[in-house]
Amino acid sequence: MPNSEPAGSPPLVRKFWLRLLAFFALVALGWAGLELGMARMANSHVVKQRRLHALANEIDTLILGSSETYYGISPHELSGTAFNLANWAQSLYFDYEISKRIVPELPKLKRVILLVNYMSLYSELYDHPESWRQYDYFRDWGIPLQRPIDYLNLGLLSRVALYSPHAAIEALSHGFRGDRAPHIDDRGWYRVPDEDRWGVGPDQAQKRLGVHHSFMHQRYFANNAATLEQLVVFLRSRGLEVVMLTTPVWDTYRAAIRERLWEPTRTLASELARKHGARYLNLQSEPRLSADEFEDPDHLNAYGAVHFAHILDETLGAPALAKTTEPSQTLAGLGVR
Amino acid sequence: MSFLSVPFFLLVTIAVVAFQLSPPRFRAHVLLGASLGFYASYGPAYAVLLLLAATLGVHQAALAIERRESESAKLRLVTVSVTGLTVLLAAFKLASTLFPWAAANAAAEPGVLRVLVPLGLSYYLFKLIAYLLEVYWENLPAERSFVALALYAAFFPQVVSGPIQRPGEFFAQVQGFQRFDAASATQGLRRILFGLFKKIAIADRLATLVNAQHQNPGAYSSLELLLGAYLFALQLYADFSGVTDLAIGIGQLFGVKAPENFDLPFFSRNLQEYWRRWHMSLTSWLADYLFTPLRMALRDYGKLGLAFAVFVNMVAVGVWHGVAWTYLAFGVLHGVFLVVSVLTLKPRDAFFAKHPLLQRVRRVSGPLVTFQLVVLGLVIFRADSLGQAAQYLSRLIGWAEPGTIAATRLDFKLLTVSPKAIGTICMLGALMECVHWVQRRPALARRFVEAPAAYRWAFYYGVVVLTLAMSRLGEGNFIYAQF
Lengths: 337, 483
What we know:
The complex is a heterodimer.
Chain A: H1 10-39, H2 44-54, E1 61-63, H3 67-72, E2 82-84, H4 92-102, E3 111-115, H5 134-141, H6 159-163, H7 165-173, H8 202-215, H9 221-237, E4 241-246, H10 251-256, H11 259-276, E5 279-282, E6 294-296, E7 299-300, H12 302-316
Parallel strand pairs in A: 1-2, 1-3, 3-4, 4-5
Antiparallel strand pairs in A: 6-7
Chain B: H1 6-21, H2 27-42, H3 45-67, H4 71-98, H5 100-103, H6 121-136, H7 146-154, H8 167-175, H9 182-215, H10 222-253, H11 271-277, H12 280-297, H13 302-320, H14 325-354, H15 356-382, H16 386-396, H17 419-439, H18 442-449, H19 453-470
């Protein structure tokens, strides 16, 4: 029956607000159900933490960094017991914070491999296409966010918002079984599926670099340089061997990188290695790897990761406890501000 | 702050509550505050200053036009003001075209000057031009209140992607900011829900496939490119009409009724009709403020004058999107199509009137042929360069290098989408058109509104679940926000 009251009259307005509340209350109820389900599913961080703790008394080599090391180093081929704790878009800030939390729990740890690639010094996760990943670090590692503004994101409170409602509903259709981190093996290595081959041609390299340059900014260099030094100093102070590593990229990518951005990173890594008794290995150009061993111009595939780990093991030898240095040294002497 | 972000919906909620709680005479101020806050969050700080400066200049110019007694003085003032606004628009659009390195992201280059076109510049400058011309033509008194004019230009649901509302219509509604209208707000919420569905469930899902194909047409077969061309038309329509629904729906929460932008455009029988049913607020703006004055000025030249006015109008539609060869080519192509269509309409009508059977065929084939022409234009519109458009179109018709990809290959893995997903999206597209069809029929729309609450709510929840189930990670961008 048509309502004879004017649309703006108080009873109709009250009815409008009450109905709106009722409507959203039901939506909220459904959302809460999805949240509970999603909370049961482990992501890559939780899976890695579980596997790392299972091996805590054996691990002697720890691999940090982002997808380049996550995909590109198979820990099984390294001497001793290596564990890959790298993760997608994991910046130096998160490498450092994770190290502070994990290194004291690994009694046999002797060597830590850090990724120092073309992007490492110029990027921050909060200003990255995958910035949502910072909330995983906050939730699963207890690592504070770098900017106060990021605490206002709904992803901080809601896994459904963080991973997308689509992912949550898809998980619901599978009864929230399994975890959200397939392809991670017992050593934390992400074995790139064989079908993930994006090609290594010049177009692909330009496309990749276009994306990388979009989040690389000069303004992040000084802070990342300081974080890298803090990380090296922290690890060396615990008597660990530190290897700063530049992972291989295919020729098309290497030919298109900007030397004026890349040169300061190399110089810094070499200086830090010299100053703190660490090692810097630049294997960006590794002639023993073929195009078939790359997933895309800057990532190795599973076969490449095995091959590269052999090369790395040959170069590094078995891990051994290294001599410590004073942790108080800073970057001031290197002229980095 | 994107339209699809939590902060935006918080802003809307706060604005609605503040609007309702504030005394009627301050409601425009509340909305202006929310609008400027939203606009400031969207781009560089100078964008807000530019918007306010342009509005202030237009406010004073309109008052001055009204005060002048002499017709020539009025004409001088309006000419200078409209030219100034046009030059401002052209300067920003040209800057972003001539210096793309400055418009793009800083890309790690220290010291690079960044010139970004303020979002929605074309929309609010067109609104201000319309206002000046209406005052000059004495269709509208000059608005005394700067707040009302600034709100007209900056009204946050419309500032980024339109629709381009006419000033008289808007000012009349600002006068009516007296009370909260529950019926209008309910309609608004329905539009918002439907807009989110179109954007999230259809447009964003198609974006991955469409982007990959249009950026690298050389890697795809004719059949795949054909699919990409059709699906881009669907993506653009769902994206743009989705944001229009959001703009109209959010406006209705404040009792502001905005003009419609679409009327089932893909069912148009010819291109003239298509342009009356696609981006209607822009095409009607151009019709009133460009085409009609031009047509009047050229009326002594008969059909030649008409053809010229039509052509200029379509080129303006093209370059309104940006100063790029692709947009110009898009406008020229549609200009040529429309000139041919307009000039041959009478003989064609006469011919078909004599052949009733062919007339029936025409009725069925008209929308199909029109759609093909629209899709052809959109391939050029979507391309990054004319070379890329040429590559797309040549591969589309099978002019690929011999021995490369089979023209009929359909590799869904390469398309990064499954046949099931494409089928689902097309079904959702059909559902979208059904809803549009119902919306255009008041009797059917009323039946839905008057149906028992349980049915309506079941429908709403269905749309919510479908939208969430199809949603992808991250904040989406609206294609028409860049213009």
